[in-house]
Amino acid sequence: MPHSHSGCQSPRDYFTEQLLSILVCGALGFVAVQLYLNDQLKHIIAPIFFVPVLIGGIGALALVAVRAVTVWREAGALVPADAPTCQQNHTHTAACNHLPGLPGGDTTAAAPAEDHGHSHDMPWVFARTLILVFPVALFAMGIPNSGFSKEYQEKQLRGEKALNLDPKALELMAKDPKSKRVPISKDGTMERTVDGVTERLYEAESGLKIREVTPVAGGPAKYVVEPGEDTVMTFNELNDAAFDADKRRAYTGKTAIMEGRFKRLGDKEFTLYRMKMTCCGSDAVMLKVRILAPLAVNGFGDHDWVRIRGVVQFMKPPGSDRYTPVLQLPQITDVERADYKNEYEF
Amino acid sequence: MQASILDFLINFSGVLWQAMPFIVLGAVIAGILEEFLPQDFITKLLPKAVVPAVMIGAVLGLLFPMCECGIVVVMRRLLRKGLPLSCCIAYMLAGPIINGVVIGSTWIAFQPHNLAPEMVGLRVGLGFAVAVVTGLVVHLQWRKHGNALLTPLAIPQSLTQADAPPAQNGSASPAPPQPALFDRVGNISATALHDFVDIMVFLILGSVLAALARSYITPEEIEALSRDQAFLAIPVMMLLALLMCLCSEADAFVAASFTKLHLSGKVAFLVFGPMLDIKLILMYTRVFKLRLIVTIIISVVILTLVLCVALHLVYQAQGWTGLPGKVTVTPK
Fold it and tell me: What are the DSSP E strand ranges found in chain A?
């Protein structure tokens, strides 16, 4: 007559549950380690969590290894149900050597014995396993392998309005009564003539420096932004600076080198953007910088990666009460194609 | 693959894998507690009076630092070891806020805004108040309903073993033999694996729900709403915390990025988030019955709301801006 733990798990169910738990926990640990090794975590979480995921994965694998050995030993210690020492409806004692950890088994042993009342029914165990396998299946399908979709990014770019600056904006800024003439070179020279043009330098109220280039032979003067020393800047620092008047003043006129994705707003105007993630994908936001070119920009499509070199200033786009960082390119060659980078700037 | 599905999967994976290491850690600690912590040991150290006991529960995080995912697992084992439910609730709610790691990360996040001492003080203070009051509310409910508020797995062991013959005073039953080290490690692995699997299922389900919600509501929309309707900022930031499911060790950096938001909205986000979010509510179902979960939700929502609105009014009355201070920064 088969032995029965009335209301409890049968040994078969117990071992099935344990094996499924071991398999699925091992698979999750393996996936965690692989996500780290394959550098896939950069698509979904911030770098501060990379090492914890690796340690979590190794921890899960170690846990599984110990548990596997324990279950193996339990199986080895199992007394067959029809053994002469195990009679029908007998009283379980520590000496009867059933399964450690099973109700009626070795009472000094494992915790599941105390989990009585908790659902051990097998349909739930299988359903649970299916749920747990979901992230493993995603990994098998190669997910995550990229950042958010183009459509997602388009949604975040909606509502961007071109500044459509007056072509004479720099001239007006230079001639503004609040602007002042400043030396064009370090030796204090206020004006110089080279290659048939006379150059003067103005500093606008915002701190932006504008070079006036007048042909000696006569003709209209040209106005271009004066680049400073090249500095690699992040979207974070420029967007952060946009909120603070002192920071705006400090950054204006600096020359920023940046890489990001391209989104056209007009012939000479585009948005450069990148995503930012602080914790995980659910807090991802888009950071944008407006780029103004001296001539029409051709040869780049939306979402292409580009590298730009531009002079920093801050302006309020039409209909907005917030400043946004605007980078004016001194030359049209200051925008060039760049390699794909990680979607996020951390 | 369709773009919206891909975006959903990225959101889902982010919430899941960010929390997973802390579930492993929580599960291993749970295993060690289960194996080595004598029944009712902590309870004997706690004061008999409820209020001081709950207050101690709320600062237990300083001793056992955990973020909100891992703490559910650890708390369930402490509950089984006889720690009173009210103390467990206070520990579970305040632990992810009042611990060294989170206090440090909050400080660092707000230091560039000249708000670090203010934000840390308010987060810890309000977190403590919400956790203690909720713990006391739960205590009142527990006196009425007892262990019917808990799932079978969370019921203290001394009660689950009520069928066992009571030990007679003086007639010492023979002490069980000390288990071998390997057996103990095996037992820890059994509990840890059990708890890991048990909670991971609900973490996955919670992450699915959070990612679904996140597909339809974006933080930009919520931020815009709080900007346009200033009085909505606090509840809206609480809603955002509920949807985003951020780890309490990193959420301060997200809150700090809402530069134009009044401090009261940020405090609401930082106090509410570690106590309640979609994945946590799902994980709570492995410990508490529906009645208790509803009590916790109502209590935490009302208390956070009321305290943060009061905070806002105090700032207004004092004429404090509650916005990041001016910092002079020279670019490199």
Answer: 180-182, 191-194, 197-203, 209-215, 222-225, 230-232, 255-264, 269-276, 285-292, 305-315, 324-328, 335-337, 344-345
